[in-house]
Amino acid sequence: MEFEVTPWEVKGVVDYDKLIKEFGTTPLTEELLEKTKELTKSELPMYFKRKFFFSHRDYDLVLKDYEEGRGFFLYTGRGPSGPMHIGHIIPFFATKWLQENFGVNLYIQITDDEKFLFKPNLTFDDTKRWAYENILDIIAVGFDPDKTFIFQDSEFTKIYEMAIPIAKKVTYSMAKAVFGFNDQSKIGMIFYPAIQAAPTFFEKKRSLIPAAIDQDPYWRIQRDFAESLGYYKAAALHSKFVPGLMGLGGKMSASKPETAIYLTDDPEEAGRKIWKYALTGGRATAKEQRELGGEPDKCVVFKWLEIFFEPDDKALIERYHACKNGELLCGQCKRYLIEKVQNFLREHQKKREEAKKLVEKFKYTGELAREQWDKAIPEPLRG
Amino acid sequence: MEFEVTPWEVKGVVDYDKLIKEFGTTPLTEELLEKTKELTKSELPMYFKRKFFFSHRDYDLVLKDYEEGRGFFLYTGRGPSGPMHIGHIIPFFATKWLQENFGVNLYIQITDDEKFLFKPNLTFDDTKRWAYENILDIIAVGFDPDKTFIFQDSEFTKIYEMAIPIAKKVTYSMAKAVFGFNDQSKIGMIFYPAIQAAPTFFEKKRSLIPAAIDQDPYWRIQRDFAESLGYYKAAALHSKFVPGLMGLGGKMSASKPETAIYLTDDPEEAGRKIWKYALTGGRATAKEQRELGGEPDKCVVFKWLEIFFEPDDKALIERYHACKNGELLCGQCKRYLIEKVQNFLREHQKKREEAKKLVEKFKYTGELAREQWDKAIPEPLRG
User: Fold this and answer.
1) What percent of chain A has pLDDT over 70?
2) What count of other Cβ atoms lies within 10 Å of the Cβ of residue A347?
3) Which of B154, B169, B376 sits opposite A164 (nearest CB)?
4) What is the pLDDT of residues A132-179, one digit of tens each?
5) Whether B208 and B313 share a structural domain
6) Distance CA A301, CA A314 (A)
7) Residue A334 CB: number of other CB atoms within 10 A?
8) Which residue of A77, A358, B246, B326 is 20 to 30 Å from A195, comparing CA positions?
9) Does A220 share its domain with A140?
10) EC number(s) in its UniProt entry (chains A, B) (predicted)?
């Protein structure tokens, strides 16, 4: 099966080297990772060491800006069309590492407008409700509340004003080329690329967007006109996809609930799902497995450990070899993963509960939030 | 010369009866005017009596809503691309009469986003600067500061959120049919119809839009989907055009400065412009004029008196006949108009100066303004 990657869908087992060529991005080299280590004076997190982030645009310039004192800022987002799963949250942990270790501002756009516009069956109230739910999950990751501004498009409508100069640069024909619009597309969808690009102009610094590589096309338009408006082209760090339980092809999908572990799943239920659905690289029988060894490179369980659930490098490598050598059976590995996932969910759900008290700070009253809102609220009306 | 009316241009001497047929609107009947008098317990102003407003959509339903206690609200606007002239301000005086005599809320949209998007040579700073200048002229008209909300799209960006459900109803193809977009149109322009329709949903009442008839197509889209979103179709009162100095064809145009009297013109200069450029219905010589009589129906001077500068009906009719009978020479009439215009300008410019102190109230702190801003500013940030 050939693989296919568009911003809407990921199909097949992905050849990431080929994607780099196709999207015209740049491999994330050892040199850049070394530089990252040096500048942050920190150990690299597993997301980088293990090449979960594997490609970039202008990350070299981001590091140069940082080194030379011009700084940069982080921008990421979430389209609130349903509950978040593990595949959604992992990039936020990587983003948290970047914020912590570079000490930079982070803007998180919650695109309740986009999801309402693009999903025929969702009401605006639906996406606003999901926005709140998703924000709890995001806050639970543990960002700095004074250096992070979580803004919901339907609320922080200042974004509209910021999108206007962008929307004067982008023709229908340009937007159509990237998003595939046609005569029946709604005018809200057609305008949306301007809203998505606007946060890259929140500061007069380079923005760095950590996102799965399928999101790359969305930033091409921004990179075409940013400099003509006196801003920087958006830089990006591209991640691979977090696969669903049922196979390494594609990415974890909210529309196939049996392939995903939701952040609000009951830990017991999550365990049952993994036990039942997780595709491993195991052989047909325990006997064969002991003789031939397993195939960790084809195994979702191993992939999940590699991407997120086994931070200990040594333990991960040992597990890889033990599998290959036939010393491990799939059941053992699954049980190990289940425990890791359950611990993570319990911890996350506790923090998610605590997040309810922090929403106001991240959205309105934290240092960065207030700074942004002050630009949005006319002086006579400010609190 | 054939006449032609689109929202972008008015050419030729206009046949208003034909326009009613072309646009599919309804004549403003004596019956509706009688009803207006009865409900407001007021004398009709010259704008109605003299058929400057001559056509409508659903004005009958507006009166019914008012009579039966459901009420209505007024919505109008201004595209701030340059200084305002007399042709721009007259509809605001008519709107003021409606507000005063029906006692209703009025929303005035200042479309600095639109003018920036649609005018290649204007910067966003330009249209924001013109927004301020134009707002002074509008305030000078004398609206009720607690029942009038003047909002600038780039500032009151809550309008974006309100436009989103509209923008999910309107396809590119629908917008193209009304506005004539093509592949090279900017995505901001394509979205704009949703922003323009949004204020008709500010209240769950019928909105009444007093505007020149060439603006009617802009509201067709709104009327197509309003009810499907649980709101009222916009009602409208359509005015004729205020002609420029150089002839009854077309409308006073800001792009032809010699045909217009600007609200900020020095009164002496305005007088000179009228004296030099105003086209009258006069004969070639004073002798001919005395013998044959003048032609007030072809005279810009008379038209300006009729539309705005001679509120005294009796005096207007006497002047009409005196002209027809050859008792008046054009110079006399011009001098009379010049005096009226100069008095108006002096008075307006005084009020315009005083308006500077009222901007804050109309935009932010008046009763209606504050009510609207309260919906736009999250509770923890309110003043």
Assistant:
1) 97
2) 11
3) B154
4) 999 999 999 999 999 999 999 999 999 999 999 999 999 999 999 988
5) no
6) 17
7) 19
8) A358
9) yes
10) 6.1.1.2
Q: How far is A224 from chain B (nearest CA, A)?
A: 15
Number of domains in chain A: 2
Tokens of A287: 């006997």
CATH for B321: 1.10.240.10
The shortest C-alpha distance from A220 to chain B (Å) reads 16
Same domain, A222 and A338: no
Who contacts A39 (Cβ-Cβ below 8 Å, separation ≥6)? A63, A66, A67, A102
Q: Are strands B148-152 and B206-212 parallel, antiparallel or unpaired?
A: unpaired
- A-B contacts at Cβ under 8 angstroms: 155
* Whether residue B208 is found in the same domain as residue B307: no
Domain-located, residue B362: no
Asked if residue A364 belongs to a domain, the reply is no
* CA nearest to A52, candidates A281, A304, A279: A304
Question: Is the domain of A268 the same as that of A123?
Answer: no
Contact yes or no for A168 and B377 at CB 8 A: no
Average pLDDT for A320-340 = 95
Give the sign of the dihedral formed by CA B176, CA B181, CA B183, CA B185: negative
Q: Do B381 and A380 touch (CB under 8 A)?
A: no
- SS3 call for A104: coil
Considering the domain architecture, whether residues A78 and A210 belong to the same structural domain is answered as yes
Distance CA A21, CA A5 (A): 13
Question: Within a domain: residue B344?
Answer: yes
Domain match, A171 and A263 both? no
What residue numbers bound the domain in which A73 lies? 4-245
* Residue B219 shares a structural domain with residue B286: no
| Burial of residue A69 (number of CB atoms within 10 Å: 0-12, 13-18, 19+) | exposed
Q: Quick check: is A35 in a domain?
A: yes
The answer to whether B154 and B126 have CB atoms below 8 angstroms apart is: no
In the block, residue with structure tokens 């509960």 = A353
pLDDT in tens, chain B (383 residues): 455 665 556 566 678 999 899 899 999 999 999 999 999 999 999 999 999 999 999 999 999 999 999 999 999 999 999 999 999 999 999 999 999 999 999 999 999 999 999 999 999 999 999 999 999 999 999 999 999 999 999 999 999 999 999 999 999 999 999 889 999 999 999 999 999 999 999 999 999 999 999 889 888 889 999 999 999 999 999 999 999 998 887 788 877 777 899 999 999 999 999 999 999 988 989 899 999 999 999 999 999 999 999 999 999 999 999 999 999 999 999 999 999 999 999 999 999 999 999 999 999 999 999 999 999 999 999 87
**How many Cα atoms sit within 13 Å of A290 on the Cβ side?**
3
